[in-house]
TrEMBL record:
Descriptive protein name: Formate dehydrogenase subunit gamma
Similarity comment text for this entry: Belongs to the complex I 24 kDa subunit family.
Pfam families listed in its UniProt record: 2Fe-2S_thioredx (PF01257)
Residues noted as binding [2Fe-2S] cluster in the record, renumbered to the chain: C91, C96, C132, C136
Cofactor: [2Fe-2S] cluster
TM ranges: none
Cofactor remark: Binds 1 [2Fe-2S] cluster.
Alphabetical UniProt keywords: 2Fe-2S, Iron, Iron-sulfur, Metal-binding
Single GO term (MF): metal ion binding
UniProt-listed InterPro entries: NADP_DH_HndA-like, NuoE-like, NuoE_N, Thioredoxin-like_sf
Domain of life: Bacteria
Keyword check for DNA-binding: no
Length: 168
């Protein structure tokens, strides 16, 4: 997990998500439009924005649950659960879609039993969309744990995942 400079400056061990949230609110107190920086700080420190912190934000910021959920759900960057051990990103750009990307996406969803921005049931994979890996001439493309793979078929994806599982 990559942490922000904020997390490196403090010992967060033993703090509940709610306490981490209160710290984030205090750090950004007085800032206009501080909800986004607060959410970034929470996610940097906890790897996600757990549902349990929303009531704290409602109380501290005098915003409604709907306003806070609206921001969390609008920005794809924000997650309500931590990423799994491995991240599989599937290119959703036009070139990849035109050359089998839609079928590849459907296969990955079935294989992992999850949708985009979700974790597989076994907690091993997070499935994420990406909007161009720069491999348009070799599409469809995926990135598994930061390593790009080109001309990926459902069979090749299965082989990649089996290989990853064998290494784990």
């Amino acid at each position: 997990m990559q942490t922000s400079p904020h997390a490196q400056d403090q010992d967060l061990s033993g703090l509940t998500p709610e306490e981490v949230t209160l710290q984030a609110v205090q750090e950004h107190a007085g800032q206009k439009g501080n909800l986004l920086p607060i959410l970034h700080t929470i996610q940097d420190r906890l790897a996600c924005i757990p549902e349990s912190v929303v009531p704290v934000l409602v109380e501290q910021l005098a915003l409604s649950r709907a306003e806070i959920h609206g921001v969390i759900s609008f920005y794809a960057h924000f997650r309500t659960q931590p990423h799994a051990t491995h991240t599989l990103e599937i290119c959703r750009a036009e070139a990849c879609q035109a050359r089998g990307g839609l079928e590849l996406t459907a296969h990955a969803r079935r294989r992992l039993n999850c949708d985009f921005h979700e974790n597989s049931d076994d907690g091993q994979y997070t499935l994420e969309p990406v909007y161009c890996l720069g491999l348009c001439a070799q599409s469809p493309a995926v990135m598994l744990d930061g390593v790009p793979h080109a001309r990926v078929t459902p069979e090749k994806l299965d082989a990649l995942l089996r290989s990853q599982e064998a290494q784990s």
